[in-house]
């Protein structure tokens, strides 16, 4: 095996004459290049950490301040009112420092202190400005004087081009809403869903909760908000995602689709080569902090912390709770094709393989005639089934020998790649093609996606792409940014030759991808089969219908001076009522990334205003003008609820944390038990 020999830097044998040591120069060279690459990455990360920490200042501003201070001292002007002289007095005596040198050093120390103080002042001012959310509640097209002044100050304090994490420590913490406000909004949200008797009972339970244990629980939450960056996110990740014992396939993971109407290349290996190269380019920008932070209105930064675990991350199963393991770097991807697993290196030394080399490697996998080893084909079904059996199988069968080494190759990969044997995508003349495409990305065959990886890149035989993403480490918009970058880079920057291959000449001397080896006993095969059967039953229970709606889009809705989001949510309420004849609790996620480490909050879109509009549509006696008026009220209410959720005044995350604190303290609350 060529790749195995190249991975060994030296070999030795014991002879009667002594130790015979043989060095592989190429292997040693590759190891040195890899070490240099790792140290270069660490230095870049250290530099970016410093630059982000002093934002909006810069090292050049420090040089200017120190030079100005030293120049003023040289001109016998003391800007420090005697502090420079006192600093000089406390400097230790040294034969290497003259009197003038001591004066310059004390001036530099004073200038550095002034610069650091100014940096802290600017960052504190930036944090205070970012706590203002009045701009979200301004009428469209009409800004108040207060908001205009705030926007000018934000532009002044963020004049420098920021790095990805420049604003992280300046973002405000998610506030803990008052208990009274949360209870009031909760009762308002459930009023359309309850008759008078049930609502009166809920009011009594809420009043009892507010007057008894709520103040005590609230104090614990406020205390937690002081010593953590976000009082919700760590509990949300653990209890909503990682402690779930049911399958994450379908129930938690989500998917992303390729271009619908364009396929840049129909060659599977070529599309995989360009896509993987583009994804690693994104990772490089991520590691260097070169990506700009997402900004609202072009001036309000959003939290970027979720991007940190995009690559080199795996969810590890446990009996009671899973854990997310994130590595600082990974130089390979794990590949699945026709029931076989491979380890594909992304670098040759310190050089990232170009797309043409990656195409060659993927083509070698596609051309490999070998079959799966016993138990290998459906091995990934363990990640699709329930978590406890997977944790038990992992501890019992994958903790030693070749199984451990191969599993580590998958879990330590940058991400997972599936070279799918099927062809999918939008085909106008093929009915149900989008349904099959979506279901394939959501669950596939239940054993051809590694559902525990941060994301799986799926490349179909006709060149179409897709992705399946694990949910616990981040929310969908984060993967959306990565996906847009990859598609754009693939299509408009890397490109293809006229016959659909990656550009450039491949290096045919590259060692082929490494086939992962397994020794799977019968007991493990039985566990794999049980997980597969459970996952297949879950997949077959999914009724998925995807269709293209081209009658109108968000442009027409905006021209009607209505929020597209409000329009869709009210439409869903109308459709559900016409189908079921009743209303139900409705969950819409809004982001809370205006705050540090923010993730999501619930918008309860079934409001009294939306139900009034829906009932008017079912009442033939209602006039068109009255229906329009009720629709306007429903849309305005929905926008208000959405903005409150985004600005930390939501309902559900606060109630969730109050419930957890009550469980920790062993307190019972009938109100929290019902919400």
From TrEMBL:
Domain of life: Eukaryota
SUPFAM superfamilies for this protein: CoA-dependent acyltransferases
Record-annotated Carnitine O-palmitoyltransferase N-terminal domain positions: 1-46
Reaction(s) the record says it catalyses: (R)-carnitine + hexadecanoyl-CoA = O-hexadecanoyl-(R)-carnitine + CoA
Sample GO molecular function, one term: carnitine O-palmitoyltransferase activity
Pfam family for this entry, one: CPT_N
Main location (coarse class): mitochondrion
Listed pathway(s): Lipid metabolism; fatty acid beta-oxidation
GO BP terms: carnitine metabolic process; fatty acid beta-oxidation; long-chain fatty acid transport
Enzyme Commission code(s) on record: 2.3.1.21
GO CC terms: mitochondrial outer membrane
Membrane association type: Multi-pass membrane protein
Localization per record: Mitochondrion outer membrane
Keywords: Acyltransferase, Fatty acid metabolism, Lipid metabolism, Membrane, Mitochondrion, Mitochondrion outer membrane, Transferase, Transmembrane, Transmembrane helix, Transport
Catalytic site: 471 (proton acceptor)
Membrane-spanning ranges: 103-122
Chain ranges of the Choline/carnitine acyltransferase domain: 174-672
Function: Catalyzes the transfer of the acyl group of long-chain fatty acid-CoA conjugates onto carnitine, an essential step for the mitochondrial uptake of long-chain fatty acids and their subsequent beta-oxidation in the mitochondrion.
Family from the record: Belongs to the carnitine/choline acetyltransferase family.
Protein name, per record: Carnitine O-palmitoyltransferase 1, muscle isoform
Protein's organism: Eolophus roseicapilla
Gene that this polypeptide is encoded by: Cpt1b
